[in-house]
Structures are given as structure tokens and as C-alpha cells.
């Protein structure tokens, strides 16, 4: 339960409307190592639907959207290496410290695995631990709202490590869940593009609305296949971890 409203943490539905650029979120997508050609195609499909939806449905301009996944020749900002990822967080920090109060959204896509003492986000080259990534995010200035969507498995430690004032942190899995590939990414994108996600029909999609709609879609995927539910998403919206 939220201890306080987080109405500032939202995406505005701008179909036929407009908003000041400062009110629109700046969005980063960190898509890690796909591992094989099949997952590469899956990731490109998810990234394509996500970026198109953010542009066309929510009015997010090119300058507010950064995708780390592949080479610049393929239309991405860069490969999502450890160095490039941390450089983008440094960029976020610098903008916040300079007074930019635009909401920040970070979406993590890819594989992760548990290791002794934590978990790792799989990247081309050296991986990064969820703990290090979470602490980097937790240390960002609190002046602007930040929403972190970890759609991978083994990302539940981010609920604790990335929590902080004005932060909403979402993880696709809970500590007791098995280390399976999650259904969360496709469910998240589908919910983001669905009119029904705006449950109160006020023209905005808030973090709780999007989280609830995504979680419901994940449940539907498992139930339609007759499978045991193996992922329970978590959300921290008050910064207490």
C-alpha cells in the first residue's frame, strides 16, 4: 500500500493533446545480453513495441528516450555494456543535479541470475550486480520522481537496494520465485498500450494502474496455459524498501 499518493509518477495520455516537455518522463531502456538469436528477436520486438507506444501514444519525443541494446548503426544509443549503463546513470545524475525535475523511467529487459549474496544483470561483457545497480539508483538526487521497472527474474533485491525518496521500484519476481524467464515484459508493454489500463478514465496512466494491469496480464498468461504461477511482482512506492 502506498503511504502517500504518487500522482507525479505517471505517463500522460496525450492522444490529441499536448504537454510541456518538462512534464514528460525521460525514459531509459537497458536491454541486456539476449544470449541467442531467438531472444534477440524477442527483445527487438518488445523494444520496438515499447518505443513506438511511448512515442505515438504518450508523446515521448526522441530526445527523451534512450535505448541501450545494440550498436548505433542499428538505431540504438549504444550496446548495453556495464560501462555504457553506468555512464547513462551518471548522465541522469548530472541532469538532476543541474535542476532537471522531469520524471525518470528506467526499464530493464533481459536475463538475470542469482549468485551467492545477490544477483547479476547479464550484459555483453562484464555483468553488473543488482546490488550495485540498485545503490547507484538509490543515490540519485531525490528532487525528481524516478520509476524503475525490472522485468527480469532475480531482480527483487532492487526493491530494497534502489528504494529511496520519490522512487517507485517494481520487480517482476519475489524472493521465493524460481529462476525462470518472466512473462512480465510482454505483459508490461501490452498493459502500457491498452486503454483499459487507465482504470479511472482520467486521461493518465499511473504507476499503480500500470503495475496492476501488468500483474493481471501475467496471471492470465499462466492461467491460460494451465501453468503454476511462478512469478509474483513486487512494488515499493514509498521508498522504505
Written description of the protein model:
With 241 residues, the chain is an alpha/beta fold. It has six helices and eleven strands. Strands 3-2-4-8-9-11 form a six-stranded mixed beta sheet, with helices on both faces. A three-stranded antiparallel beta sheet has the order 5-6-7. Strand 8, helix 4 and strand 9 form a beta-alpha-beta unit. Helix 5 packs across helix 6. The longest helix has 20 residues. It is globular. The N terminus is likely disordered.
Topology:
Layout: E1 10-12, E2 26-31, H1 37-56, E3 65-68, H2 82-97, E4 104-109, E5 112-115, E6 118-121, E7 128-129, H3 130-138, E8 146-150, H4 158-161, E9 167-171, H5 184-192, E10 204-206, H6 207-225, E11 234-236
Parallel strand pairs: 2-3, 2-4, 4-8, 8-9
Antiparallel strand pairs: 1-10, 5-6, 6-7, 9-11
Helix pairs in contact: 1-5, 5-6
Report the average pLDDT across residues: 90
Low-confidence stretches: 1-18
* Helix content range: 25-40%
Structural class: alpha/beta
Q: Radius of gyration, rounded? A: 17 Å
Number of helices: 6
Strand content: 15-25%
The biggest beta sheet is recorded as: 6 strands, mixed
Q: Give helix and strand order, one letter per element, not per position.
A: EEHEHEEEEHEHEHEHE
Shape: globular
End-to-end C-alpha gap: 12 Å
Summarize the structure.
The chain is an alpha/beta fold and 241 residues long. The chain is built from 6 helices and 11 strands. The chain is 32% helix and 19% strand.
